[in-house]
């Protein structure tokens, strides 16, 4: 907290007039991150469906994680503490964006939660590995992302119900 206060140009005790400690500050940063990511997803996907929405979501997540790695990291494992908790509201908004990607596919409603988890896992994993410089092979990372999006798109289309 002293580093945060120093960077903000205030005394440590003054900071505590606004936050209840490190846990509260971290939670507020996480809420901001979830809200911003949800906004970025919705903006990127607006007017798109199917593979186009999927590609837009992948790019929005990659961009957000690159621009705000700390905020994004704070969102991992974030959970609501009560019904009207801002975390619940923002997580619901963000997860509904993943649901919007899936509306371009005719999935059985019982499969949708599995598809959301798969989509989140794949896009999160790709973006966090990219930011951590985890892709050391010579192939172009944008090409790898397009390949992943095409692969997921084919898988979702194969899972469609008639």
Most strands sheet: none
| Envelope shape | globular
Q: List segments where confidence is low: pLDDT < 50 over at least 5 consecutive residues.
A: none
Quick check: average pLDDT? Answer: 88
Helix tally equals 8
**Total count of strands:** 0
Output the radius of gyration.
18 Å
In percent, how much strand structure appears in the residues? under 5%
Give the fraction of residues assigned to helices.
Answer: over 70%
Q: Please state the structural category.
A: mainly alpha
Q: How widely separated are the two ends? A: 56 Å
Order of helices and strands: HHHHHHHH
Describe the structure.
By secondary structure, this protein is mainly α. Helix content is 71%, strand content 0%. The chain is built from eight helices and no strands. Helix 3 (22-45) packs antiparallel against helix 4 (50-67), helix 4 (50-67) packs antiparallel against helix 6 (86-102) and helix 6 crosses helix 7. The model has no long low-confidence stretch (mean pLDDT 88).
Short overview:
The chain is an all-alpha fold and 162 residues long. The protein has eight helices and no strands.
How are the elements arranged and paired?
Elements: H1 2-8, H2 12-15, H3 22-45, H4 50-67, H5 69-75, H6 86-102, H7 112-131, H8 141-158
Helix pairs in contact: 3-4, 3-5, 3-6, 4-5, 4-6, 4-7, 4-8, 6-7, 7-8
Which key phrases capture this entry?
single chain; 162 residues; mainly alpha; 8 helices; 71% helix; 0% strand
């Amino acid at each position: 907290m002293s580093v945060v206060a120093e960077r903000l140009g205030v005394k440590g005790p003054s900071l505590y007039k606004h936050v209840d400690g490190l846990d509260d500050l971290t939670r507020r940063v996480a809420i901001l991150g979830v809200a911003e990511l949800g906004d970025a997803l919705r903006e990127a996907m607006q007017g798109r469906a199917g593979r186009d929405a999927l590609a837009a979501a992948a790019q929005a997540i990659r961009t957000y994680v690159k621009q705000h790695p700390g905020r994004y990291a704070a969102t991992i494992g974030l959970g609501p503490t009560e019904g009207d908790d801002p975390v619940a509201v923002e997580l619901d908004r963000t997860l509904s964006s993943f649901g919007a990607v899936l509306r371009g596919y005719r999935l059985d409603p019982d499969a949708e939660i599995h598809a959301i988890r798969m989509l989140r896992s794949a896009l999160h994993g790709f973006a966090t590995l990219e930011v951590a410089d985890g892709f050391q092979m010579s192939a172009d990372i944008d090409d790898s992302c397009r390949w992943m999006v095409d692969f997921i798109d084919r898988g979702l289309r194969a899972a469609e119900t008639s």
